[in-house]
Specification:
With about 250 residues, the chain is α+β, with helices and mostly antiparallel strands. Helices cover about 45% and strands about 20% of the residues. It folds into two domains: about 140 residues, Jelly Rolls (Sandwich); about 90 residues, Arc Repressor Mutant, subunit A, CATH 1.10.10. Helix 1 crosses helix 2, helix 4 packs antiparallel against helix 5 and helix 6 packs antiparallel against helix 9.
Length: about 250
């Protein structure tokens, strides 16, 4: 199986296809490399195809008139971009997408994707599931950003990364405690602290200061992009207390 086929097999959209189908579909796709800082699409560009991230990280960003921007979400290997516009009334991107690391993406024209979807019931189901998963990810992000202070935003984001690292589809605090082992759990920030701060809609200095405070309290330990969750139970209880207050 070639690299494109392996990348497709990691996506929700193509995960249930057999080897021959993956090879057949991958033969109709093109691969593109982007360097860190390069723009994949600009807000307002016409949606003419689907992108699959095969390596690296992309940031979905919204720019203001004065050039400032907020990071709406991150796309990592296996994530799909563009398909959410295929059957909607809008056929232009409502955001920009930038490579925050060196990135490889796989591109498939829109008309080819639609033929696949309409001809294959499994891909049709996966297409709907992929859009549903994207919406759930956005709702999780909204939930994180709606927390009342920096500490809770950071805590919920770290717990979200922990759940994702456990390959769970349920963002439940009880599940986190149940799956924890004797080994100290940790998460890896997918991007730099600067980009992570943008993702959490907070100034970088504020983000760094709060991490230092959490370290001093024995909740976490930070080493580069690695964040050790030293007191997972306390972190989980913070999240539970927030939901109880709501």
């Amino acid at each position: 199986m070639d690299k494109i086929s392996r990348a497709l097999s990691k996506t929700v959209l193509f995960s249930d296809l057999n080897k021959d189908q993956l090879v057949d579909y991958s033969s109709r796709m093109n691969k593109r490399t982007l360097w860190k800082g390069e723009i994949l699409v600009n807000e307002g560009d016409r949606v003419d195809g689907l992108y699959v991230v095969s390596d690296g990280t992309l940031a979905i960003q919204k720019y203001s008139i004065d050039g400032e921007y907020v990071t709406l979400n991150l796309l990592e290997p296996g994530d799909v971009l563009g398909h959410e516009f295929f059957y909607g009334s809008r056929n232009r991107y409502t955001y920009s997408v930038e490579a925050v690391t060196n990135v490889e993406v796989i591109y498939l024209p829109k008309d080819v994707v639609i033929r696949f979807v309409e001809a294959d019931d499994q891909i049709k189901k996966n297409f709907v599931k992929s859009i549903s998963d994207s919406l759930n990810e956005q709702y999780t992000r909204i939930d994180i950003l709606s927390q009342r202070n920096l500490r809770l935003k950071i805590t919920n984001y770290l717990l979200h990364l922990h759940v994702k690292s456990e390959e769970s589809t349920d963002y439940l605090y009880g599940d986190i405690q149940h799956r924890s082992t004797e080994a100290t759990p940790y998460v890896e920030l997918p991007v730099s602290k600067e980009v992570t701060a943008k993702l959490l809609a907070m100034p970088r200095p504020s983000f760094s200061r709060e991490l230092v405070r959490m370290e001093k309290e024995g909740l976490i330990r930070v080493n580069g992009k690695i964040v050790w969750l030293l007191d997972l139970q306390a972190l989980v209880m913070m999240g539970e207390d927030e939901y109880e207050e709501d």
